[in-house]
Structure prediction request, 643 residues.
Amino acid sequence: MGKTVAEKIIAAHLVSGDMMPGSEIALKIDQTLTQDATGTMAYLEFEAMGIPRVKTELSVAYVDHNTLQSGFENADDHRYLQTVAAKHGVYFSRPGNGICHQVHLERFGKPGKTLIGSDSHTPTCGGIGMLAFGAGGLDVAVAMGGGAYYITMPKMFKVELTGALRPFVSAKDVSLELLRILSVKGGVGAIIEWGGPGVKTLSVPERATITNMGTELGATTSIFPSDEITRAFLEAQGRVEDYIPLESDTDAVYDRVISIDLSALKPMIACPHSPDNVVPVDSLKGTKVDQVCIGSCTNSSLHDMLKVAALLKGKTIHPSVSLSISPGSKQVLTMLADCGALTDILASGARVLECACGPCIGMGFSPNSGGVSLRTFNRNFLGRSGTKDAQVCLVSPETAVAAALTGQITDPMLLGDMPPVTLPEKFKIDDSAILAPLDETQAKNAKVLRGPNIKEFPKGEAFPENLSANLVLKVEDNITTDHIMPAGAKILPYRSNIPFLSQFCFQVCDPSFPERALKAGSGIIVGGSNYGQGSSREHAALVPMYLGIRCVIAKSFARIHAANLINAGILPLTFVNGDDYELFAQDDDITIENIKAGMDLGQLILVNKNTGKQVSVTCDLTLRQKEILLAGGLLNYTKENSR
Ligand code: MIC
Ligand code: SF4
Prediction:
């Protein structure tokens, strides 16, 4: 039987397991990346493992999230990251050099290789034919130490593309259309492979926009074939030697095929507060817009920025709109400056921000109260922008410019003719902001500099045989990691300070949660379906662990978050019967007995002490995951197993 692109890369990296959907497989990881908001924790974990030097082909530490330095915290963390990277064999991309995914695509991604990153949008490099996964920091630390990465073998979905995009319709609209079709849960347990004749009409940056947003579908990852277009991109980046061709076999089998005719697509918009709340832009025409933000790892490539500059050229933005533009990398910004496009952007009245995540993660540029903000980003979760009552919508760069110029939601197709935009044959290569690590001799004596903001990693406790715990919080469907552990300029600087962060846990849902959880001593959370969707931040597991949460019982879980819970020693359980969710109320006292035997059986019984009701829950764990939980988390498990 023929293989898909993803199956070929998996087969070439398989360390253990069977490539049968649903069974656990372990993969050799060639490259890792971290960003600063998750990286400090990942390197603390790596240090705790006691391995002197990374064992991957390449590991890179980026600084792109926490770039507002309104106190010593972020600056100290940057210094920690720079020194810990230098000592342990990791390349360091300095603040200002760009967003991790954009820079990795430009300078490091390689078709046919595996990559894990402590950021959920790591699949961006799938645009170049790389098998790239978002993961928790601990999984990345283990991979840096040479350990395998464990996932459940996914199903294979194919999106068959035909036709070609019309002017003013772009890759972002393809992603939004797929979100409309599949929803934020539609990709769970699957790798989404893009194929069909339409693929040949998409450049690498466009493909990367699409694989980037596969994360919002809950997909394990997304990938494009590697072809002549990939080759041309790598050649333009001065690294044609990294090219290999990769395509699926003609008799490859997919579990599901979805067809999209690119020529029939229209500009789309995701309405508040979910990326799958998608409608055509023209159905909202005339809605007043207060703010427009262009950038993020989804839409900040040179290709996107050149289109934006061309559409803004000679025009002035609407007086009631505030427009921010954050180019994805130093390469993008320099090339915009060199060709004069930056001047067109500035002349339009846009505010140019640094090459970083910025407004996407609430690092500045929060909208006004109740403001309508159109953003080219990938997430519009409630409160993420920093303004809880803002109406944040997700759009393409073309739709963003149309709103910035007119002050209202406008179909960009009404802007007239699309100026032609072509990618350069050679990108400007300047890697001076990427610092190489020290050699082994120098590294031995090198000091790692730690500021007072870095607190100890919370210690996991072995899982008890019997558990009595309070149901501290009951939440609904699609709870995101932004609900569990919010980000934003005020809190992000404390990503290496779990005790401080804990005060903000579930702040959007119930600000009294941290105090009540600590008081309960041992706590349980009950959730609906797709619990933990969104970010890869392991803080959404480490902080509840610190607050005494031992179990989360939900209708279903998002992949990375479920892995993070286990890594933190928290037991994820799913209702056998989804309706049993109704049998629990906040503050109920719950007991679970004979946990080890139940784990072996795959099923546990919960007793609700308040109602006397018994409910059976699934405990779907591999042998390795059971051992991790019984050891009190992945760090304890790794230490025990490396003795
Ligand atoms: C995000 O987009 O939510 C983030 C911030 O990039 C996260 C990582 C984090 O929380 O640090 C992600 O997507 O994994
Ligand atoms: Fe940064 Fe936003 Fe991309 Fe996350 S989604 S990596 S915050 S740009």
Summary: The mean pLDDT is 97. The longest strand covers residues 155-162.
